[in-house]
Amino acid sequence: MLAALLDTHSEVATIVNECQLEEEPLSRTALRDAQAALGSVETEGEGIRHYGDADAEYESLIASAGLIDRSDRGKLRIEGGDRARFLHGMLTNTVETLGPGEGNHTALTDPQGRTQADMHLYSRGDVFFVETEPGLQADVFTFLDQFLIADDVTIEDVTEAWCIMGVQGPQSPGVLSDLGTDLPEDVYDSVDVPGGGWVVKRIYAADVGYDLWIPADKAVDAWTGLVEKGARPAGLEAAERRRIERGHPRYGVDVDTRVVPLEAGLEDTVSFTKGCFIGQETLAKMHNLGKPRRYLVGLAIGRDNPPESGDQILDGEKVVGDVKSWVESPRMGGMIALASVRRGSETPGTTLRLQNGDEATVTALPFIP
């Protein structure tokens, strides 16, 4: 039962109630204190890097169950009688055909088809929730709000009201067995959790995974309960290794407003059968011709010194792309990176060169199926 997670009264839960900061929501501060009690190492402006052993945290995401605090993700609540019709005309993926408890990966594009945001949309009965990269919810709010005229639609930023606990790894179903509900079977599907909140199937750091959306005032008890059920807290270092190994682009890091979703590894965000949406003409033309200008690819670098994000990629003397994000991958035995390259340089096996002279081999994504 969820009560088994939320009513847990451990030493960690006692510690975190003793120290609060006035400038931030008390529940969020208490959650950080719970994480500090478990050895979290935080980098200012970046979040928790690790909990003392990034390598073991990485392995937990592969072999057991890792627990990732994703509470800084942006969150919008959208309601009103016109919500589905309105969003259907705004977003790149389908909305009107989503039933309660269903969701998808979607994006916002401008009239030229350029990516303004990628996000995850969840239908929760009479409301939709939108999840974005941290801080991006403000831009999404502004983008959508400018098109609201006489629509019965209300958009609310609920980022601070909800925390997200990511449980990723083959043992995650067992960790979540006390929720008091069957876990959703399909990716992006969600079910209510008795006692408040909901759980959605999400795959981003492992082959099996879920996100538990929990009201912020219940976050500490939920976090403590999940740890006591066997989930190992995992920080950004472990999560980033898995993200890049799995070839998932991140908006603001691997994707920006210069590229369209089909050039950025975000093909799954676009429906070509849903009807009109902003930027549809550009995306449909590119899709029908099959000729994106750029491609998101993997690079196997295999050297000791990491590249820099933004490093130029060359074919001979010609600049053909740039490095986006990189990580040292134990599974791949060296440095790997996500990169954006021009059409003609995307074929796996192609040997390219970084601006410092190091060779890099184009690799199909994901690096590790």
Protein described:
The chain has 369 residues and is an alpha+beta fold. Helix content is 22%, strand content 29%. A 6-stranded mixed beta sheet has the order 10-11-12-9-3-13. A 6-stranded antiparallel β-barrel has the order 14-17-16-15-18-19. Helix 4 crosses helix 9. The protein is globular, with a radius of gyration of 21 Å. It starts with a helix and ends in a 6-residue tail after the last strand.
At a glance:
The chain has helices at residues 2-6, 11-16, 26-36, 54-63, 83-90, 137-145, 172-175, 219-228, 236-245, 280-289; strands spanning 41-43, 47-50, 66-69, 74-79, 103-109, 115-123, 127-132, 154-157, 162-168, 190-192, 198-201, 209-215, 232-233, 294-300, 312-315, 318-329, 334-342, 351-354, 359-363. It has 369 residues and is of the alpha+beta class. Helix 3 runs parallel beside helix 8 and helix 4 packs across helix 9.
Radius of gyration: 21 Å
How big a fraction of the residues is strand? 25-35%
Fraction in helix: 10-25%
- Secondary-structure element pattern, one letter each: HHHEEHEEHEEEHEEHEEEHEHHEEEEEE
- Main structural class: alpha+beta
List the helices and strands and how they pair.
Layout: H1 2-6, H2 11-16, H3 26-36, E1 41-43, E2 47-50, H4 54-63, E3 66-69, E4 74-79, H5 83-90, E5 103-109, E6 115-123, E7 127-132, H6 137-145, E8 154-157, E9 162-168, H7 172-175, E10 190-192, E11 198-201, E12 209-215, H8 219-228, E13 232-233, H9 236-245, H10 280-289, E14 294-300, E15 312-315, E16 318-329, E17 334-342, E18 351-354, E19 359-363
Helix pairs in contact: 3-8, 4-9
